[in-house]
Amino acid sequence: MADLSQYQDFNNIGSWPLPGKIFVIVAVMLIVLGLGYYLDTSDQVSELESKQSKETQLIEEFKTKYKKAANLQAYRDQMAEMQETFKGLLQQLPRNTEIPGLLDEISYAATGAGIELISHKYLDEVKKEFYIEKPIQILATGSYHQIADFVSRVSGLPRIVTLHDFKIEPASSSASGRGGSRPDAGGAERLSFSVLAKTYRYESEDEQQ
Fold first, then answer.
1. What is the pLDDT of residue 1?
2. Where are the domains of the chain?
């Protein structure tokens, strides 16, 4: 049995037997390595993980920018096409002097559809950011199919006209002037309808100032 008294003198480790010396050396090395990892290596590992995460993020950003760069010409072509489309839409906005002619076209659409215009009046213009809105209140009578035909004709006008706030009801004697709600020549019941038509025009430089 080994004499344990040989290992009790820590001031004279050099006189310990070889197994004791090896044990002390290994223990000291483990302690040094553990302290080194705790004090330095753990911080480096955390920094490495942070760098790896940053690297992944940069790679994804690179892929996104690369795709944009690869499709840059396609984006430019698409932008040019959108600008041409926008110009075309602007050209559909009548100038102030073209408003009366556009209103005539609406009247022609009503006549062509066979509806009877009872009244129409201009409402106050509404100024928007890039244009001026011109509302027109229309009251007319006609059959269901005539009203649908009128809407179709208005939608086919070369200038932009939108219809809002439809209200349809049986034609009364006061609205139709025909002595009450009676069928038209084709046998269809006549209806009274009101609609708010809106057209749009450029805002001139003088108006902007």
1. 45
2. 1-70, 96-208
What contacts 68, CB < 8 A, 6 or more positions away? Answer: 75
E strands, the chain, are: 116-122, 126-127, 132-142, 161-170, 191-201
Q: Say what the pLDDT of residue 176 is.
A: 46
Determine contact, residues 145/188, Cβ cutoff 8 Å: yes
60 CB-near residues (< 8 Å, 6+ apart): none
For residue 53, give the 3-state DSSP assignment.
helix
CATH of domain 96-208: 3.30.70.60
pTM of the model as a whole: 0.49
The pLDDT score that the predictor gives to residue 174 is 46
Residues 6+ apart with CB under 8 A from 42: none
With beta carbons less than 8 A apart as the criterion, state whether 175 and 118 touch: yes
Kindly report the backbone phi and psi dihedral angles of residue 3, in degrees, each rounded to the nearest multiple of 5, phi listed first. Answer: -85, 110
State the Rg of the chain over Cα: 44
In this prediction, residue 177 carries a pLDDT of 47
